[in-house]
Design a protein that fits this description.
This protein is about 40% helix and about 15% strand. By secondary structure, it is α/β, with parallel strands linked by helices. The N and C termini lie close together (about 10 Å).
Length: about 425
């Protein structure tokens, strides 16, 4: 069974959990001998690695002349101003975008020599432009590659999947890792919503990463429940435990960590408010916010206004070994998300032996038993939980050991196995 898969990012070039999930899924699928997988990226750098997976860079695909003419007729070619989706960028990038907006125009077709389209695979001001270009290349790839099923990850790739389906007539699997309602609440971007809905409606099967996400897909996007299937994510223990046995934090203080985009969705302000309450009772604790996003500068000012800057640290965006080191230093991990479709980072923390506090408004809370679960807005409950775990070693040890037992039963191979069963179902074949 041959799968043509489209993604927007892949380790080591990632900006969040989407790329990590794509890596886990491809690794899990690669363990099945009956799966042949081709993974397409807007731009592949050559150091993306997964056993049994062929990577294709859309930027290296030569287009036919008629495809280039199609690009020139499209609305994005005639746009006078770029469009930024703020939830994917840092506060500094957003400020620079606002300053340059009147002076900047969309970079036309970005055609390089050999009729190739130069794509960045980033989340910048030309994101919608790149999404459309990516879909044009996807159509070309669909004519060249030999495959049975198209599988796309998140809204940036949905139009690519639709075009590949139009060209090939092959079934389309849409994988929803997050929705616009998770990222922005009621103040969602209408253009993003329409792309998401279009992708889901054109899909033969929609995969949601949690029951929380499945309900959103059904109720907010109007997708038939029979078409939407839940497949939970997992976490790779080997990827995050490399430094836990040898790395020491070097201070005799407790460290409480937030790791994720500093955006509305992730609830950073609730983490900071709870930190202030804890610091009124405990002196030997430091709080770390690792990540960046459009609310970064606002959160820095918020910390300063509360007078806790000497006990609060902003680490910036971390990836790879730096994430492992951060977990190794941490005594407690918190994910206070306002709406989290899944949330891989708590699983990574538990693999690293770090107890976790997670919001009830998260998909991962559906599969973890031994974590403290609070409403994201209940800063008193969050502060009490932080204090209790840091103050009483027996509670921390219980959550640490039982949490490790929880995650030991969750694997990417199991997730991939459920996806594989859906592949066979969509092809109406008995599972091999």
């Amino acid at each position: 069974m041959r799968i043509l898969m489209f993604g927007w990012e892949y380790p080591p070039h990632i900006s969040g959990g989407l790329g990590t999930a794509c890596q886990g899924i491809t690794k899990g699928l690669g363990s099945y001998s009956d799966i042949e997988l081709t993974f397409v990226l807007p731009r592949a750098y050559g150091n993306e690695v997964a056993e049994g997976v062929k990577f294709v860079s859309a930027s290296d695909v030569e287009l036919k002349d008629e495809s280039l003419q199609l690009l020139k007729k499209h609305e994005y070619y005639h746009m006078k101003e770029p469009v930024m989706v703020s939830c994917y960028i840092s506060s500094e990038q957003y400020e620079q975008f606002i300053k340059k907006r009147k002076k900047t125009s969309v970079s036309k077709t970005g055609i390089s020599s050999g009729n190739k389209i130069a794509l960045s695979g980033k989340y910048g001001a030309t994101l919608f432009d790149e999404i459309y270009k990516y879909s044009v290349v996807a159509g070309e790839i669909a004519e060249i590659e030999d495959f049975d099923i198209i599988h796309v990850h998140d809204w940036m790739t949905f139009r690519a999947g639709i075009e590949a389906k139009r060209i090939s007539g092959k079934p389309l699997v849409v994988h929803v890792h997050a929705t616009e309602f998770d990222r922005c609440g009621d103040h969602y971007n209408r253009r993003v919503f329409c792309i998401e809905q279009e992708g889901m409606k054109n899909a033969d099967i929609v995969i949601a990463v949690s029951e929380l996400t499945r309900n959103t897909v059904i109720n907010k996007y109007g997708i038939p429940a029979s078409k939407v299937h839940t497949v939970y994510n997992a976490a790779d223990a080997e990827a995050v435990t490399g430094h836990s046995a040898v790395f020491k934090k070097g201070i005799n203080e407790k460290i409480v960590t937030f790791l994720g985009r500093i955006t509305y969705q992730k609830g950073p302000e609730f983490f900071i408010a709870a930190a202030q309450k804890v610091l009124q009772k405990m002196a030997n604790v430091r709080f770390v916010m690792a990540g960046n996003g459009d609310l970064s500068e606002k959160m820095i000012r918020y910390v300063a206004s509360l007078g806790i800057s000497d006990r609060f640290h902003f680490a910036g965006f971390l990836k790879g070994d730096d994430v492992s080191r951060m977990y190794a230093m941490s005594d407690l991990y918190i994910m206070p998300s306002v709406s989290e479709p899944f949330g891989i980072s708590p699983l990574e923390a538990l693999h690293s032996g770090v107890p976790v506090i997670i919001s009830k408004q998260s998909g991962v809370s559906e599969i973890i038993s031994h974590a403290i679960k609070i409403d994201f807005w209940d800063i008193d409950a969050m502060a009490d939980a932080i204090y209790g775990i840091l103050k009483y070693p027996s509670l921390a040890n219980f959550l640490r050991h039982k949490g490790k037992e929880d995650v030991s039963r969750i694997s990417w191979k199991d997730s991939a196995g459920k996806i594989r069963q859906l592949y066979y179902h969509i092809l109406q074949r008995p599972t091999g």
